[in-house]
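Protein modeling request. Please complete all fields; requests missing the sequence field cannot be processed.
Requester role: graduate student
Desired output: 3D structure, token encoding
Chains: 1
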Amino acid sequence: MSRTSNVTKVDYYEVLGVTRTASDQELKTAYRRLAMQYHPDRNPGNAEAEDKFKQCSEAYQVLTDPDKRAAYDRYGHAGVAGAGSAGGGNPFVDFQDLGDIFGDLFGFNVGGGGRKASRVQKGRDIRFDQTIGFEDAVFGKEIDVRIRRMEACLDCRGSGSSNGRGPSTCPQCQGHGQVRYQQGFFSVARTCGTCGGTGTVISDPCTTCRGDGRTEREHSIHVQIPAGVEEGTRIRYQGEGDAGRFGGPSGDLYIVLSVKAHQFFERDGNDLHCVMPISFPQAALGAEIEIPTLEGQTMLKIAEGTPSGKEFRLRGKGVPYLNERGRGDLVVQVAIQTPKKLSKVQKELLRQLDETLVTENTPTSRSLFEKVKEMFT
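Delivered output (377 residues):
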């Protein structure tokens, strides 16, 4: 009895070392391990390894085909006679379906599988950093920015070829993108080194773009900055990035905003904060003072006996909500100023006032909230 006939009588599940309920992934994993171990190219001149490799290939071919596996489970080898045995047909696996397995093992495509790499490429995205003023971020602004990007070559109209006809068929792989070699029992295909797998080459590259199909040029973009943007806001302009190669889509342009600081307003989300100095008489007696806003001056009423550090909230005087209705608030904190230089008359008046005031100089404890607030401010 021939050596191959003996091989086909071995139970396929035992050949692969799996159970009869093994999944397709378990079959694939087992076959991958055995193929690495017994592949003829790894065991030159070893007839036993060659037999084992044929054996596991035949088992994998049958068990990964639902119809063949069902017939084998019911009738054994007789149910698949001629389908994968040496007695009829090809004893090897359909290697086109297993290109991913052997591509991982040996670094090539097996059989007729594999697709040509596309010469068409999407253009690169561009980032452009733009600094704007504090008020521009609050109320919005329209500006023009100038960027440098890759655009279709005017001389070759993006074809990359000096004659304008574009790529021609690769002479090395005849347009297949792969070059075939014979390795042992396999007909394998490697990516063509001449065309990089695209199947085409630029035989007469354009002298302006050197076959790239694009050249760098300056371009002006009108940018609409919406009200309410903040530090780090990104504005996307689809298709305004680098042009794609050989008909590919263009990338996108991202305008990344940086906002200048204001001389006395500070932003917290959509609220604005500022500190307003007042005198002791204004705090004690009450007053109406003029305070600045981003839209001009407005009046703020200070109640009698206002302590230093008290906050007043002016509704709707803050930053607009981005792409929404409404605005944040303006929070004004008053700070009582102590005069550093007083005239004799002022000092005498303050002494007279002090004699009429009763102040208990007794220490008091601060609340936990006030202590925590001081730590962060």
